[in-house]
Amino acid sequence: MSPAPPPASRTQHWLWPLLLLLGSVTLAIAWLMVALATGSQAGWMAIAAAAEAAWMLRLGTLPGGRPRITVAMLATLLIALAANWGIAAAYIGGPMGLAPWESALRLGPHLAWTLIGLANGTAEILWLLAGLVAAWWLAR
Fold first, then answer.
1. CA angle 43-49-55, nearest 5°?
2. Which of 119, 16, 126 is nearest to 72 (CA)?
3. Which residues contact 48 (CB under 8 A, 6 or more apart)?
4. CA-to-CA distance for 140 and 39, rounded, in angstroms?
5. What pLDDT, in 10s, does the model give residues 38-95?
6. Alpha-carbon distance 99 to 36, whole Å?
7. What is the pTM of this model?
8. Start-end of H helices in the chain
9. Handedness of CA 68, 73, 75, 76 (dihedral sign)
């Protein structure tokens, strides 16, 4: 008698949200630290955000196609928003003696939008668009 074939392995698709959340929070904090260290908005980090999102979705075995592309692009946008919110909070709360996370909780959406709009120019918008294209390309 021949041995029984091994059972078919099932791919688990429940891990991708946790991996994406962990990677996104980590990258948003890294973006904040790079921006504060360089004194700029560090818009080029949108490419890193796109690569991280696509990689975490692949690592978490989210099936390819439109869902993965959509989630990767949305994650890239949310990482950019979180990083820019943190940058604005750090610059507005720092002189008042607040840590970035304390200031971020007190920063209202209208003031944050105004500060983000003032700090980001054409170059940062182009970097964000490049990040979205990279997310689309890498998540396919």
1. 155
2. 16
3. 27, 30, 31
4. 34
5. 999 999 999 999 999 999 999 999 999 999 999 999 999 999 999 999 999 999 999 9
6. 13
7. 0.89
8. 16-38, 45-59, 66-93, 100-106, 109-119, 122-139
9. positive
